[in-house]
Amino acid sequence: MTATIGTGPSVREGSTAAGGGISSRPRRSRPLISYGRWWWALPAILMVLLIHYVATAGGAVYAFTDWTGIGDFDFIGLENFRRIFEDPKVFGSIKNTLFLAFGFLIATNVVGLVLALALNRTLKTRYLLRVLFFMPVVLSPLAVSYIWKFIFDFNGPLNGLIGWFGAEPKTWLADPALALWAVLIVMAWQTTGMVMVIYLAGLATVPTEIEEAAALDGASTWRRFRHITVPSIRPSIAIASTLMLIQGLRVFDQVLALTGGGPAGATETLATQVYKETFALSNFGFGAALALVLTVIILVFAVLQQAATKDRS
Q: Distance between the two ends of the chain, CA-based, in angstroms?
C-alpha cells in the first residue's frame, strides 16, 4: 500500500513534466448520448414504423378484399379500384377535393402573406393583432364549423346582415352552388393565422439593410418585394404551400360538420366518402381502396409541390 501511494504522485508528475507542465491529452468524459449513437433513437423509430407505416400498409391490404368489417373476407384483386373509376360519385368527390385543396392553398397563402407583410414591423398594435389572427388556429375545427353553421343559417347573422342592404337571404349550406364556397371560407378563416406566422418567421430573416439600400436606389415597393422579399422567404413559401395543400386534400371535419357532404353530394370529398363507405355502409374493402387512392393523390401532389417550390439558387 505504501508503494502504491508513493508512486502515484511520481507518475502524475512525470506525465505533467512530459507535457511541459500541462498534460497534452486531458481525459474528457464522453457525453452519455454518444454511447450507442443511433441506438438511442431505435425505440422511437420502431414505434413510428409499427404504429404508422405498418398499420397503414396493413390497412392497404384490405383495399384488395371485400371485407365488410365483420367475419371473413376474400381477395378480389383490383375490383374495388375498378368500381372507383367507374363510379361518377367518386369523380365528383375528387373534383370537390381538388377544388377545396387548391382554393384553400391559394386563399391561405395570399391572405396569410398579406397579413404577415402588414404586421411585420411598423404597426404599433402588430403584436395584439397577431394574437387575434392566430387565435382561430388553436380552436377545434368542429367547434369552429358549428359556429359558422349558425352564421350561415337561413335565419342567421349573415342573412340578417345582407338583409340590411336589401339583398335576398340565401341558403348558404343548402345551395349546391354556394355550399362548397362556404366550406372553403371556413377552412381558410381558421388556418390563415398559421400561414401568417410561417411568413412572419420568414420575413424576420429578410435583411433590412438590403431593403433600405434598394429604397435609396429608387426601387419601388413591388420591385423590393419581388427581388428581395420573395427570394428571402422562399423556404417559408415551400413550407406553407406544402402544409396547406396536404391539409386541403384531406379536409374532413369542416365538411362533416357543415354539410355532411350535401346537398346532393355537392360538398362530398374523398375523406368524407371514405368515412361513409367504411363506417356507415360497412364497405371496409371499398373504403380502404378509397383511402389508398387519397393517400397516393396526397403523396403525388406533395412531391410536385416540393419540386415546384424548391430553391434552385
A: 70
Q: Tell me the mean pLDDT in the region 70-82.
A: 89
Quick check: 179 and 259 in contact, CB under 8 A? Answer: yes
Candidates 142, 185, 310, 187; CA nearest to 242 is 310
Lowest mean pLDDT among 48-52, 149-153, 190-194: 48-52
Per the rule left: phi > 0, alpha: psi between -120 and 50, beta: everything else, 165 is alpha
What is the three-class DSSP state of 65? strand
Nearest partner of 12 among 20, 27, 23, 1, judged by Cα: 23
State CA 17 to chain mean position distance: 62
Q: What is the rounded CA–CA span in Å between residue 204 and residue 140?
A: 29
Q: How far apart, in whole angstroms, are the C-alpha atoms of residue 267 and residue 260?
A: 8
Residue 214 is predicted with a pLDDT of 86
Alpha-carbon distance of 193 to 211, in angstroms, equals: 26
Which three cell numbers, joined as nine digits, stand for 35?
454511447
Whether the full predicted model's pTM is greater than 0.90, yes or no, is no
Distance CA 196, CA 84 (A): 38
Q: Is 213 left (phi over 0), alpha (psi -120 to 50) or beta?
A: alpha
The full set of domains in the chain, from first to last, is 96-308 (1.10.3720.10)
Cell of 172: 348558404
Q: Which of 110, 137, 125, 115 has the alpha carbon at shortest distance from 203?
A: 115
Question: Residue 20 pLDDT more than 60?
Answer: no
* Rg (the chain; Cα; Å): 29
CA distance 105 to 119: 21
Q: Which three cell numbers stand for residue 275?
A: 368515412
What residue ranges in the chain does DSSP mark as E strands?
A: none
| Coil vs helix vs strand at 101 | helix
Mean pLDDT over residues 195-224, rounded?
89
